[in-house]
Amino acid sequence: MKKIKCALIGSGNIGTDLIYKIKRSAVLEPVWMVGIDPQSEGLRRASEMGLKTTAEGIDGLLPYVLEDGIQIAFDATSAYVHAENSRKLNALGVMMIDLTPAAIGPLCVPTVNLREHADRVEMNVNMISCAGQATIPIVNAVSRVQSVDYAEIVASLASKSVGPGTRANLDEFTFTTSNAICVVGGARRGKALAVINPAEPPMIMRNTIYCVTDDEPDQARITESILRMIAEVQTYVPGYRLVNGPAFDGNKVSVFMEVAGLGDYLPRYAGNLDIMTAAATRTAEMFAEEILAGKIQLKIREAA
Amino acid sequence: MNIDSTALKGRKVILHDMCLRDGMHAKREQISVEQMVKVATALDDAGIPYLQVTHGAGLGGNSLQHGFALASNEEYISAVASRMKRAKVSVLLVPGLGTMRELQSAFDAGARSVHVATHCTEADTSPQHIAYARKLGMDTTGFLMMAHLNDPAGIARQGKLMESYGAQTIYVTDSAGYMLPEDVTARIQALREVLAPETAIGFHGHHNLGLGISNSLAAIAAGASRIDGSVAGLGAGAGNTPLEVFLAVCERMGIETGVDLFKLMDVAEDLVVPMMDHIVRVDRDSLTLGFAGVYSTFLLHAKRVAERFGVPARDILVELGHKKMIAGQEDMIQDTAMTMAKARGLLTDAAA
Fold first, then answer.
1. Residue A168 pLDDT > 90, yes or no?
2. What is the pTM of this model?
């Protein structure tokens, strides 16, 4: 079966883990890995796994985009360079999956709104943050039953799974995720907290989701909705698991989740890495399926 | 350890009161603006040079995770700061919870000093916040929490990082009240060896093992010049180092603080103790924090869920220590209690 060719930009933890996820896909094929440091572990590994590599950044890839038929690119660099990467690749008709906090395009959580984005043939969709991918499905599972005035999420991450980019930009992580809790999760107000825990052996990613409903929560319907949502997320992140809850306390609904990864690039504790890369891959797959079925066509834009 | 009672004579130490920030934990965040102003003006009058005023969890603290205070941080800060004659108002900022926007807003409200706090191994989550505080011209501290969970060499490396971001003081923070004096000595000495001479060192203690005073003295002997404490000990767990007690010891030893002992005793007795919902002291549960190395703030949360799920608070706290939960993971208290309650047949799985 024909596969859609992909480029990965950024050779850190996320970019490297993406290679494994995309290689496993029935409709995607990783072809290029773009980095900026020729010595990086990610570029070395990409090369070993059969990808073409460049350490010249995005400009090292551009001459090969049309020649190699790249149609989807994943950007796991930083918010600061994403806009430029996106502009250059969109101009060549490449659809962007943004794994940085830049969020130029619409925010995407596959189980909530991927279908909409695919139908609108968005050329850039943003994957929010690992905490967003892990918690917004639950916020949405509550808000689709009844209105949520306020949702708050707490993500606990193993220290070894948090790269330098996230560490240096925790505020961005907070703002991006808080905003998405409202925009995608459907809560009126949102807040995101992150904790980095260095325990050894490393703790598996944990997420707590609190939702405050306007009216008394319909416990049975909310529980059913949450369990259904968890099953949907499990189709692309098998280690997405309910540990405790939903617990009801007045109008507050508390849900305690754990996210174990597949152990591709980082060990299983790094569920934060997996849920991000798996969600991005799932998103790319839906676009790829549409392209392969001839339902959508990505357009080369006039160079600006 | 032995400290020669004359060895510290003449040393100058800056006292930093925590009762209106750490004390918020012990009051479930329910200190009113009026109470804050009353205590703060009395502390200012006693000559306390720095006092911290925010939600217990600091900037951004108002949340389901950490509880909602009676007023916003800005309301507390501006009410207090506008009435200070000498004292500087400080705030706590934990990256991942508080942001630079909130720091700016606290500064605008009158805060002039900040503890930028990270877990003792995660200093590299603070460079932006420390740099931003310096840009605002604030007295800026790098605050290494749960410092018993990193060894002296590790603390020295983390402190050096914070110094490189711009922190003017590095704190060893015994959030669990777990450290023995020799643990404090080793960490402060390790910091002193690597930090620039102009970088100050501080110690923030909790009294869960009754060692707040002796640990603070050990810190000074090893080179610390800033000490956090709380009038009447009003703080998380068994409270902070009780500041008026520590001050009396300083007076006896000839350590210079510039603070009036009798006035501070009066603040403790007349204003702070009457505010307490429970007498902050070493009891079964707060002692468990110190013994098991658990974050002091977990105390009241654990008591609350203990009541709700029927699992004793001490059992929950020991398990949290075993799982190496750190500051900010208050959600894991209910989670742990629920898991324990299920194992004990006290709770059935909602998903079952």
1. no
2. 0.94
